[in-house]
Amino acid sequence: MPAATNISGESKGELDLIVRGNRVVTPDGERAAAIHIRDGVITSVSGFDEVPRGTQIYEARDFAVMPGLVDTHVHINEPGRTDWEGFLTATQAAASGGVTTLIEMPLNSIPATTSVAALQAKLAAVPGKLSVDAGFWGGVVPGNAHELVSLWEAGCFGFKCFLVDSGVGEFSCVGEPDLRVALPVLTKLGAPLLVHAELPGPIEAAAKGRAANAPRKSYQTWLEARPRAAENEAIDLLLRLGNEFGGHVHVVHLSSSDAIPQIRKAKASNQPVTVETCPHYLIFASEEILDGATQFKCAPPLRERENREHLWAGLRDGTIDMIATDHSPCPPEMKQQATGDFLDAWGGIASLQLSLPSVWTEAKRRGFSLTHLAKWLCEAPARLAGLDHQKGAIVPGRDADLLIWNPDASFKVDPAQLHHRHKLTPYAGRDLIGIVEATFLRGVKIFERNKFCTAPAGQVLLRGQR
């Protein structure tokens, strides 16, 4: 087991801590190394034995040491819907899963983060509740283009919009005319636009074509309700507008692998587009979902095995840049477990605490390395949020946010062990690989061996401030 030791000597007190191990994952690869920490920041990464006498050392031994994960797609829902989730429970789940930085989506809180006043309401709800660091995306909705500059100056890291009904009334979807108003503003600011890329047309056509007696408990009914064309056509639109205005467009939670070739083509022409997918699209397959198992419902939907493997191929060749959870919890009754009705159930998957082992379980069997994990779950998300000077890698000058974990140990997901407010998850009972041993936030151990080590020590992150 990892342990803290102390080496006595005259240099005592120069550093706060050294974390060292035989499997430290840096941008240059995995190696034995010692991470030197002062005032919460990594000052150097040295050889394993290059440690000054008198410094406290946390010995990770043969466990993997990675940057703390950065999850840029999380719905915390506070204020307004704290019965769905909240800062306290979400950030505890994050810490226990090795996630040290969250960027929260502008919905499903009330008010949605579409104005500076709404951002201030959110900030007022935070004190004393953050176990990890958290920042915020603003929202683009019809009619709020005049708020975008102010939200950016107030510290939002970028902006999110929906091209289809979001499911909540306070966050309306936008169309091409709205994007044509917002994109020039965001391009001038240098702000990324994150997009839920589904168009309503193909979804409406699918609804009209659905038989009146279609089995509502069948997952196939839900899958057919959200056809790939909705994503593919939305991404076509985004790439066209992104090319026209020159702004950074980010496709969230890519589900349809059909869109990968067009994204690859845009990237080849140096268009500033980035893409994420989610753990659930990389793990589950539609063919495996039983009737009434509404805990698997999300939008866009989980698709077929073949589609899943194409998503993995997109990660392998770099077309898909990163993985984020889209943690979107709700009270269990909203999942319609009693009726098993996929069409009425809320669409969202709770997975924040399980992103590391869920991705690693499938990545390992496909021959990926810990370096790939660090790129997808740490480096690329930090870059998206403009935090790559501070988060996402074990290099000097970055925050000493560290994850120590056992990439060889397996466990069965027990919902009772999850720190999310609600425990309903499609991962329940699933065998996963990878157990978090300890999480450090700016050099402070906040979680170790299933226990929280400090009072909530997270900070609010605002763009432009360290």
Explained architecture:
The chain has 466 residues and is of the alpha/beta class. It has one domain (68-387, 410-432): Alpha-Beta Barrel (TIM Barrel), CATH 3.20.20. 27% of the residues lie in helices and 23% in strands. It has twelve helices and 18 strands. Strands 1, 2, 3, 4, 5, 15, 16, 17 and 18 form a nine-stranded mixed β-sheet that branches. A six-stranded parallel β-sheet has the order 9-10-11-12-13-14. A three-stranded parallel β-sheet has the order 6-7-8. Strand 12, helix 8 and strand 13 (273-277) form a beta-alpha-beta unit. Helix 4 (176-189) packs across helix 7 (228-245). The longest helix has 18 residues, at 228-245.
Report the total helices.
12
Instruction: Give a quick account of the main beta sheet: strands, pairing sense, barrel closure.
Output: 9 strands, mixed
- State the secondary-structure class: alpha/beta
Top-tier CATH class:
Alpha Beta
End-to-end span in angstroms? 34 Å
Mean pLDDT comes to 96
The helix content is 25-40%
Run of helices and strands: EEEEEEHEHEEHEHEHHHEHEHHEHHEEEE
> How many structural domains?
1
Question: In percent, how much strand structure appears in the residues?
Answer: 15-25%
Low-confidence stretches: 5-13
